[in-house]
Amino acid sequence: MSDKIPYKIYLTEDEIPTQWYNVRADMKNKPAPLINPGTGKPLGLDDLAPIFCDELNKQELDNDTKFFDIPEEILKFYKMYRPSPLVRAYFLEKALGTPAKIYYKFEGNNTSGSHKLNSAIAQAYYAKKQGLKGVTTETGAGQWGTALSMACSYFDLDCRVYMVKCSYEQKPFRREVMRTYGANVTPSPSDTTNVGRKILAEHPGTTGSLGCAISEAVEAAVSTEGYRYVLGSVLNQVLLHQTIIGLETQVALKKYGIKPDMIIGCAGGGSNLGGLVSPFIGEMLRGEANYQVIAVEPASCPSFTRGKYAYDFCDTGMICPLAKMYTLGSQFIPSASHAGGLRFHGMSSILSQLYHDGYMEARAVEQTAVFEAAQKFARVEGILPAPESSHAIKVAIDEALKCKETGEEKTIVFGLTGTGYFDLVAYEQFNSKTMTDTIPTDEDIAASLAKLPNVNF
Amino acid sequence: MSDKIPYKIYLTEDEIPTQWYNVRADMKNKPAPLINPGTGKPLGLDDLAPIFCDELNKQELDNDTKFFDIPEEILKFYKMYRPSPLVRAYFLEKALGTPAKIYYKFEGNNTSGSHKLNSAIAQAYYAKKQGLKGVTTETGAGQWGTALSMACSYFDLDCRVYMVKCSYEQKPFRREVMRTYGANVTPSPSDTTNVGRKILAEHPGTTGSLGCAISEAVEAAVSTEGYRYVLGSVLNQVLLHQTIIGLETQVALKKYGIKPDMIIGCAGGGSNLGGLVSPFIGEMLRGEANYQVIAVEPASCPSFTRGKYAYDFCDTGMICPLAKMYTLGSQFIPSASHAGGLRFHGMSSILSQLYHDGYMEARAVEQTAVFEAAQKFARVEGILPAPESSHAIKVAIDEALKCKETGEEKTIVFGLTGTGYFDLVAYEQFNSKTMTDTIPTDEDIAASLAKLPNVNF
């Protein structure tokens, strides 16, 4: 059978799944609810309505519905860039000399450069359906902002992106992609919001932060008629939309009779990891199969491997709700690594619960080793991977080399979330051997965890 | 039938053509041979052997063999990123409100970002087969250099790229992609060659030119044991390798019973245009079909529409052989447009002869209009196109809008050669409305053509 598997498995468009999968429905231990820090009570639809779109809030709070139909309009948009290929890494296997069979689900073949578009189009759709004029969001390096601007352009929605000022100025390329798609991109902090003006008055020369950009985006949404705020990771709704990744992977594997032993994904806020692994973990929860599921996080921001499972703020500004999650503390500042998408102090509540319950293990890997894996991969598989995705590559290679030692023919599936075309500053440092690894000390983490909010649920 | 055509037609890997097509075999009027400017005689294998690889020289001079088998190793590499999709532009059709059916062959889904890889891997293969240690080339913006570095990495060949110094310094991103794939990238002019040292002595502050980089790359190849020079466009061999584009397109169209009326491609040196259209023109030459074939060139560098069909040097340095082609004169300096891949004063000899014989028409389009088309396309089809490719988009849209007026349901196929992820400086100018159009005057072109070499063949 194996020799008949093509280099790239493309499903037909008819084979694209038409429902998203909600892993919460299969979880015995449900993820802990979001808590209003003011009242100490779980957030309900009414609390969320001023900030997020109504339909998305329903998805956010629904722990029971196992499948959500993907609306026709979203399915049509998915056909613009999906199905994404499941690639058999024949070239990598040969280069490693491993008996392991390696597959990767490649989400980078679209202009946003990553899987982010899967949720962006869904969030834009529900905003449009609600009759909104537009949405606001924040972006750091710009991957999520790019995806959202593409989605809003499709539905003719206004898209206001608050981009961390230092990225706006120093990384102008994604900014221009967003502008090409019609988004309004504002360097943050800005004088367009109260919080922005306040920060500018207090710190006139500041180059901004993600925390500040979130605050501005939320204020802009709440204070503008017909606008809501949207977010690209962490939330339950985002994981739901991203299950298209894992579901397509399952269809492709089934089509060729492939049974994976191991599923590997990089872990930041959890949007990609949850999207890829939760349909497989669903099989485990239902007792239908068993997989070794591995979350890979940067050693510079090790929320799973060195964090605490506790209620914490989702943002450094401490204005967002409290979520129970593996966290390094909302005041933890990860070092300036190049995997911007993984520099989040916490982790999705769903994934945190699943990890806590033993359905997943986690590994923390260092930046330079990640780029060595990225380069090795690029040279044989052709694709220049994003730094985030390369965390998964690193562990996939490690596992394949273990198979080489033991002779085991394991089947490894990993998520290749995106391309590194806008990460060449990082590759330049790697090529010039000026890249460094920074790992927080135990004291750093303890100090940050000491500032966790004092809540008791 | 039409409603069953998917958004993206992917061939299976077994359907990838296994031979390249040599249109010269079907041409009654063969393209004029390359001439040695010293002797005034056509170049033979012996003349070419010190510069180019032996097998490639055979392909270059062969006007008779209709099909060349694609070696197994190259076919395997092709499967890393091919078959490329033939996309039905449903979203664009709807946005235009046209009855036309629009398809595009998308060559951008690989890290080189364009079709250049199709020939790079072939040239690297023949270099390796000849037992060479490495190859040299020049690159401007870096698209060809990137493709070649990927190909050389695969065959473990040394790759030495002379990159125009101003691009090396101002556009470092493709340089870093090349370095990641192991290429040795030198800013040109450099002190590594005689010609480089001479230019540096005469013009100490120069930021280089493509002509200078070609001269350095050729000198480096000729003067280094085990090295040859490779080129990414213009040559017959390059057009031969690029026919994989048109041949795959034909297989995909046939699979769904689609008969195109019109084939559109952007025209620079001719690598993409020739690769896409020559299999279709072959049908015309054999009297099997008839198509409207349109070459689209920048109004700033209009070799087909305003040039002269004459023998001319292929390079501004006037060290390369003479080719008979549509040319604006080797001393013509196109304005600094953003479609760097189309800024060549001449045109492939094969395409020049076909154009001369009436198998193709040509249109010249202005830069700002091209970016307007690019933006319109990006917003509905999702892909941010390269400026070069956007020339074809512009004319495809023009033709689709004509169909809207006339009510004709024409089937339009165009080549989308690549993505614009490394062209964001151009998009920034467009978004900021600071982009300009520069069209040469009749006097400019006449002055340049007056300097054509005085040859009589």
CA-CA gap between termini of chain A: 52 Å
Low-confidence stretches of chain A: none
Work out the largest interface and the residue count of each chain: A-B, 41 and 41 residues
Number of strands of chain A: 15
Characterise the protein shown here.
Two copies of one chain form a homodimer. With 457 residues, chain A is of the alpha/beta class. Chain A folds into two domains: 8-15 and 71-113 and 236-449, Rossmann fold (3-Layer(aba) Sandwich); 20-66 and 116-229, 3-Layer(aba) Sandwich (Rossmann fold). Chain A has 18 helices and 15 strands. In chain A, the strands form four sheets. In chain A, strands 1-4-5-15-10-11-14 form a seven-stranded mixed beta sheet, with helices on both faces. In chain A, a hairpin with an 8-residue loop joins strand 12 (308-313) and strand 13. In chain A, helix 4 (90-96) crosses helix 15, helix 6 (143-155) runs parallel beside helix 8 (172-180) and helix 15 crosses helix 16 (387-406).
Structure, briefly:
With 457 residues, the first copy, chain A, is of the alpha/beta class.
Features:
homodimer, 457 residues, alpha/beta, Rossmann fold, 2 domains, 7-stranded mixed beta sheet, 4-stranded parallel beta sheet, globular
Protein topology:
The structure is a homodimer of 457-residue chains.
Chain A: E1 8-9, E2 19-21, H1 45-48, H2 54-61, E3 67-69, H3 72-81, E4 86-88, H4 90-96, E5 101-106, H5 117-129, E6 134-139, H6 143-155, E7 158-164, H7 165-170, H8 172-180, E8 184-188, H9 194-202, H10 210-222, E9 227-229, H11 236-255, E10 262-266, H12 271-285, E11 292-298, H13 303-306, E12 308-313, E13 322-327, H14 349-356, E14 361-365, H15 367-381, H16 387-406, E15 411-416, H17 424-431, H18 442-449
Parallel strand pairs in A: 5-15, 6-7, 6-9, 7-8, 10-11, 10-15, 11-14
Antiparallel strand pairs in A: 1-4, 2-3, 4-5, 12-13
